[in-house]
Write a structure and sequence with these properties.
By secondary structure, the protein is an alpha/beta fold. The chain has twelve helices and 16 strands.
Amino acid sequence: MRELAETLAAWRVDGVAVGRAVVVRTFGSSPRPEGAVLLVASDGRIAGSVSGGCVEGAAAEEVEHALATGRSRVVRYGISDEQAWDVGLACGGTIDVLVEPLVRPEAEAAARAAAGTGSPADRRARAVITPLPPDSPGPGIGPHRPGTGTEPAPVLVAWADGHLDGTLGGPAGDAELAARAAGLLERGTSQTVELGDRSYFIEAYPARPRLVIVGGVQVAIPLVAIARTLGYETVVVDGRPAFATRERFPDADEVVVGWPDEVADRIGLGPADAVAVLSHDVKFDEPAIVTALRRGCRYVGAVGSRKTQADRRARLRDAGLAEADLVRLRGPIGLDLGGRSPEETALSIMAEVVALRYGRSGRPMVERVPAVDSAGAGPDAASRAAAG
């Protein structure tokens, strides 16, 4: 629901009541994942999606009914349901949708935090845990006749450090629920879990991902734009005042003039950050790489040809970096997409950042014969641009 935070805030200003539908389970080839949200205002406005268009109308009607009755329920849509043709999901897949007559304050606050609004102290990762109504469909696909629903149940909030606001009534259940929530936060996914005889929807709101760009070079300009489109917070760092300006980077969340290793504390550089080192200047690059690796940043990539990378790694070893740290350095930076322009290079860098975030290789999902241009296979786009 992070992407709907601004819309919801605007509707609050208008003073309308807002209910929502959220996907809590999927079976087979579902069009949207768990956590996808449709908002419906009492004046008829809608935002978001639970199915990419298949069941939006039916889900919106359910939310309108919930707004009128004040009751929550879980509705199952799919090819195994006799409603399938009526709601348009005949293309396949089954989804369970939690329909609520309100957007719970815990979910609204979490969405704002994940969207990067509010103070830094409010932007902590969290998971909102909603007990599903007792008459909800079970975890398997099978016959089900929905009941009349129940009043909204109290929710719990799990934090990334393992703390749980609220209780299931016992330490063992609380510990298991907190552990499940922590795992989902780490992966950035939402899911319904079964504990005892009750189902709980864990809605993950990981902290907004951040990309720290070292070097306000030309490639950094489209890289900020692409990262921002993907929901990343962006910070540009450069020790040269002429390069680190608001005129060059109007859309960056922060532009910092300073040596990368010296501003690390100021920007709170840490394990959740991705760092792209683009300055192609030893006196900037290597202190930044050392700092990022020692602070455990999740992604550290640096421009340069393969020879440049080999020479750099030798110097970094001499500087005291362990081999385990050097293995995490991505260089040449970016996936080999074959492009050469600053925009194509930025795309290759961001593609690698996203692939690593989700634990993927970046290779095609279906094996294909690799394309080779007239110059033959070579280093990645970023390295070719930097080398040129």
